[in-house]
Amino acid sequence: MINDSLLRVDNLVKQYADNTAVAGLSFQVREGSCFGLLGPNGAGKTTTIEIMEGILAPTSGTVQYRGAALGERFRAEAGILFQKTALQDFLTVRQTLEMFRGLYDHGLDVAEVIRLCALEKLLKRDNKKLSGGQLQRLLLGVALVNDPAILFLDEPTTGLDPQARRRFWELVESIKAQRKTIILTTHYMEEAELLCDDIVIVDHGKIIAQGAPQTLLRQHFKAVLLELPTEDWTPAARELGLPFFEAAGRVELTTNDLEGTLRTLMQAGIALAHLRIRPPNLEDLFLELTGKDLRA
Amino acid sequence: MKLLTHLRRSAKRLFAIWHARNLEFLRDRTSLVFTLGLPVGIVVAMALIFGGPPRPLFKVGVLGDVVTPASYPFLGERYFQFVPEPREAAAIRSVTRNDLDLLLDLRQRPVRFWAIEDSPKGYMAEKLLLQADSQAQRQPTPGVATRYIDWLFPGVLGMNMMFTCLMGAGYVVVRYRKNGFLKRLSATPVTAFEFLSAQVLSRLALALAVTLILFTGIGTVIHFHNAGSAALLLLVAVLGSLSLIAFGLIIAARFASEEVVNGMLNLLMWPMMLLSGVWFSLEGSPRWMQLLAQLFPLTHILQAARAVTLDGAGPAAIGADLAYLGGTTLLFLGIGAFSFRWRPE
Q1: What is the fold of A5-218?
Q2: pLDDT higher at A165 or A27
Q3: Which chain A residues are within 8 Å of B28, Cβ to Cβ?
Q4: What share of chain B is helix, strand, coil (3-state, %, to 5)?
Q5: How far is A73 from chain B (nearest CA, A)?
Q6: Architecture (CATH level 2) of domain A222-279
Q7: Could you tell me the CA-to-CA distances from A49 to A202, B177, B188 in Å, in that order?
């Protein structure tokens, strides 16, 4: 039981005619933390987050915000950045922020939001003329106008180039620094590892792992990872009996005995000039738990 | 106090949506040009049809054989158009419809004539005739005449109002739902009723502006005379627009397909165009048709508008129509808010 939980999800189920998107999820989100909801495509994370946002009704189960069902207070105190959001095409950035600010009784000054999201140079630009990164910054600004106590970010950096993604991370870090609670879904494990204090990994509508990223890594991996280019992974190497995974032009080996594995490879005459040794990261954990097959 | 605070906050949210919608409309150049260009185009078309170069001031029908100014000097007057009329009864009917300003019967002496007493042109034509021929004898005309354009004009305005109200607000809401903007709004404190009310008020301003342009423009061209109160006519326009916009929003309350909404709106508009008395009166048509027509807001708009403009009716005379329009506005908004969906089903 987490005493300082801001949001509590109990036995959440969402049943559609032909599938069960969410199959009994329960977890809590600590106030002031960044909580990551991770999972492969179709795992049920968007359905889960939309129920948590109060946008979608669950088939059964409850979501409580500050100990009460989602209601007026939640809508006034929540900021949401949907995975896909359209704004009014012919409004400028400033007009959009002013419109959304007008929907709340309390919140930040629009000027403050503009500063927070680095929108100063875009104020007179029409929404439809913004680039992907600029639009995401505006949408983050829209989500911040009410100075939310809890901020939902549903795949906020999907489709952004690396620069824009890093810029967005900086913004989220600055929001985190204000001790706001953030709920993040993302496909980028690097992003989750960087930003999240706690994560839940869901698959087929169920939780398969839950905890702090480093704790989960320690729990699931005692090993290190070795990576080699595929062209160096000779037929002889394939006969060594070492468990390996091959994808995207590289071969990956997981081992608890680094010295022994290296000795075996050297004795087999495998070229190790391009060998890379690294500790496992969240992406490895994600693949370990959800499998490496392509999802629809 | 709590209620006041609630109302103030509700009004604030409503204003925010209303203001943004207006800004969006004004920034959408294509839509703006089309919406405002259309009434201007209609004004121009009407000006071409009913305006143009100087025309004869009076149209006079003539019963009898071919006549010349030599045989009857009045026929030489300038600014008169003399139209031979073969049949007396039909010609008299044309006078009562104001198709003719005056009808002369030259088949006998003294000459007989028919004119509408309260028609300014008929009056003037009669004066000029009697100046030229003091022996001419006035004959009684059956019924009271009304210019067709005066009768049609409220119908044209009402029809345009129907298009502006039904199509505009409905499509905007469907587009918002389809592109996910409504979903975003659903995550804010704004309620469906507030959102729909903002759309109604935004569209109302546009509908009134367009109607005013048409009323002023065409009214000037056709010399339209409003026999009643302009303020009362404005009230009819406001309540009528509100009812029609809210009617359209019922259709747009849950769908995310423009095609579906387009079909449904057409389904509503065509019966209204045909049965609400835009082009012709339903007098003499089957009872069921008349009862059906009474369900349409447009019918009550036109009944009230014509009563004001043609008969000079006051608030009491059109009270039932105004009540129907006000009541349906609230009813349609209520149904719209109840059945409203923020996201596609």
Answers
A1: Rossmann fold (3.40.50)
A2: A27
A3: 89-90
A4: 65, 5, 30
A5: 9
A6: 2-Layer Sandwich (3.30)
A7: 12, 20, 16
Please check whether residue B180 touches A, CB under 8 A.
yes
The residue of chain A nearest to residue B179, with distances taken between CA atoms, is: A86
Min Cα–Cα distance to chain B from A218, Å: 38
Helices B148-179 + B297-311 axis angle, to 10: 150
Tokens standing for residue B136: 């001419």
Closest residue of chain B to A146, computed from CA coordinates: B188
H or E, element range at A37: strand A34-38
Strand-pair category, B102-105 with B80-84? unpaired
Distance from CA of A70 to the nearest CA of B (A): 11
Q: What whole-number distance in Å separates Cα of residue B97 and Cα of residue B225?
A: 16
Q: Which of B195, B227, B133, B144 is nearest to B341 (CA)?
A: B195
Nearest to A103 among B25, B26, B190 (CB): B190
Cα–Cα distance between A148 and A145 in angstroms, integer? 8
Q: Which of A52, A75, A90, A96 has the highest number of chain B CBs within 10 A, making it the mutation to test binding with B?
A: A90
Residue of B nearest to A89 (CA): B24
Listed by start position, the domains of chain A span 5-218, 222-279
Distances (CA, A) of A214 to A217, A242, A287, B294, B337: 5, 27, 16, 72, 49
Question: pTM score, two decimals?
Answer: 0.72
Chain B residue with minimal CA distance to A139?
A: B184
Closest by CA position to A205, among listed A16, A56, A5, A3: A16
Residue pLDDT, tens place only, B278-295: 876 665 567 788 888 999
Contacts of B18 in chain A (CB under 8 A): none
Most confident of B180-184, B235-239, B263-267: B235-239
For residue B23, list chain A residues with Cβ-Cβ distance below 8 A: 90-91, 95
Q: Does B89 touch chain A (CB under 8 A)?
A: no
* All structural domains of chain B: 2-50+147-339 (no CATH), 58-139 (3.40.190)
Q: What is the pLDDT of residues A55-102, one digit of tens each?
A: 899 999 999 999 999 989 999 999 999 888 889 988 999 999 999 999
Q: A196-216, pLDDT tens digit by residue?
A: 999 999 888 889 889 888 888
Partner-chain contact B16 A102, CB within 8 Å: yes
Residue A180 sits at the vertex; the CA angle it makes with A177 and A186, to the nearest 5 degrees, is 90
